[in-house]
Amino acid sequence: MTIDQRNSIAGRPRPAAVALARSGENDGAAAIPEAGRRTCYAPRSLIFLEGDRADTVFQVESGSVMLYMLLPDGRRQIVEILGPGDAFGFSPSTLHDVSAETLMATRCIAFERGAVERSPALMSRLSARLYAQLCTLHEHIMLLGRKSSMERIASFLIRCVPGRGGPTCPGRPAGAKDRADIRLAMTRYGIADYLGLTIETVSRSFARLKRRGIVSISKIDEIAIHDVCELCRLTGTHLSCELGGARTRPWSSQRADSAHSATR
Q1: Are 157 and 194 in contact (CB under 8 A)?
Q2: Chain segment 20-78, per-residue pLDDT in tens
Q3: Looking at the DSSP assignment, which residues form a beta bridge with residue 77?
Q4: Residue pLDDT, tens place only, 66-121
């Protein structure tokens, strides 16, 4: 499912957006364990805005949510893409430091912030998920700080292929085509704002992947990856994706190689 950036709720007046979020909560609310309530949101629904009171913590049950920040001139940076199990809404202050908007039809469990703080079991459960999300953010910081535009696009697409590209990646399947079909929940504008690129650079990178025969695009939100391992090599993260899984070079060996090259 795609989002028309021109119709994005991010630019609408705050009162209307908050009313929409509250309507979604009331319509889909249902009692669930541990003092939470189930909330349902349509695609492109605003859950909360940066600067709103941080009275509620959410955990995604199904669907996808993006967290983003806006500069005064309207420039946007999408800081995190969340999926089932991920938690959001935590803040060190009484106000949210980011905005949250759904990318597709999404169902969340909403917890009152006070209830989370009073429940060690609930806090432990949500904290465990936050630790995993923090590791993902580390990878994203590396992407934004060091990777080229093509490496960023390749990394984004590989993340959409379940079980591929990480330390446990099984590598190229023996005797089978190494392909995958993915459906994007983000527009090209959203991808650009997430990867720190311009829309023109995103479009050129997809065109280069098409010319090389690595992907084909039948619709704007449907991409067929014809060689997952070849795409993985373009991420800049792994040296090899052959059988046995993707392998990352240890940082110590990379530094040693660099020092050796510098003395030659």
Answers
A1: no
A2: 333 334 444 444 546 689 999 999 999 999 999 999 999 999 999 999 999 999 999 99
A3: 69
A4: 999 999 999 999 999 999 999 999 999 999 999 999 999 999 999 999 999 889 99
| CATH for 5-141 (3.40.30.10, 3.70.10.10, 2.60.120.10, 3.30.300.30) | 2.60.120.10
How many C-beta atoms lie closer than 10 Å to residue 159's C-beta? 18
Kindly calculate the radius of gyration of the chain based on its CA atoms and give it in whole angstroms: 20
**What percent of the chain is predicted at pLDDT more than 70?**
77
* Residues in Cβ contact with 219 at an 8 Å cutoff, skipping those fewer than 6 apart: none
| Fold that domain 147-263 belongs to in CATH | Arc Repressor Mutant, subunit A (1.10.10)
133-168 pLDDT, tens digit per residue, is 999 999 999 999 999 999 999 999 999 998 888 777
Residue 238 is predicted with a pLDDT of: 65
Residue ranges of the domains in the chain? 5-141, 147-263
**Same CATH topology for 5-141 and 147-263?**
no
Q: What is the pLDDT of residues 226-255, one digit of tens each?
A: 999 999 989 987 654 444 444 444 444 444
